[in-house]
Design brief:
This protein is mainly α and about 180 residues long. About 80% of the residues lie in helices and about 0% in strands. It is built from 10 helices and no strands. Helix 6 crosses helix 7. The chain is globular, with a radius of gyration of 17 Å. The mean pLDDT is about 85.
Length: about 180
């Protein structure tokens, strides 16, 4: 079983790209999942554009599924998540006033896990089309960075990997600063 999963992720079986896409869908619905590592790994086994598309479409599809589940079935789970993390109430206020902007910011700046953005948006008044558009636009820069990093690692181009790492660290630090400000 382990060998089959490894073969699928390493793109060594027919239709491995489909299985990789499905893995990204599932992983994107789990809070604190290693999406950056998986995205870089998948991209290292493809040309750049196919790797980027597998990662972007997989994580976006997973986000949409969790959003729709939250809107219809997981309302109590999402509310429990919110009450456990009180600092998120400011994000909830933002999402209630401008859903598109809140989802976009939640994707661009890692303030909270992607699954958290999906759950909160699902219980709010965010329209499905606004959620999808903000998710695609917001995920694109980071998924692009992870995919490019994986592709460059496979190519041995460590200069580009270093630049990407600095970009991601800057995003992470910005997200922490905003999160700390909200916790006050």
């Amino acid at each position: 079983m382990e060998q089959l999963i490894l073969d699928l992720v390493q793109n060594e079986k027919p239709y491995a790209w489909l299985y990789q896409f499905l893995i990204m869908v599932l992983v994107s619905m789990i809070p604190f999942a290693p999406i950056p590592v998986l995205a870089a790994y998948i991209s290292s086994h493809h040309d750049f554009m196919p790797g980027l598309m597998i990662n972007l479409l997989g994580t976006t599809t997973g986000s949409i599924i969790l959003f729709l589940l939250s809107k219809n079935l997981l309302r109590t789970v999402a509310l429990k998540y919110l009450t456990k993390h009180q600092y998120l109430m400011k994000y909830v206020e933002l999402i209630q006033t401008n859903g598109f902007l809140a989802v976009l910011l939640g994707r661009l700046i890692p303030i909270l896990p992607s699954a958290g953005v999906n759950l909160i948006a699902g219980i709010s008044n965010v329209h499905v089309i606004a959620f999808i558009a903000a998710t695609i636009l917001g995920k694109l820069p980071t998924i692009l960075a992870f995919s490019l990093a994986g592709h460059q690692i496979a190519s041995g181009n460590w200069d580009v990997v270093l630049i990407i790492a600095l970009y991601l660290i800057a995003l992470f630090l910005l997200g922490r600063k905003i999160k700390q400000k909200w916790a006050r």
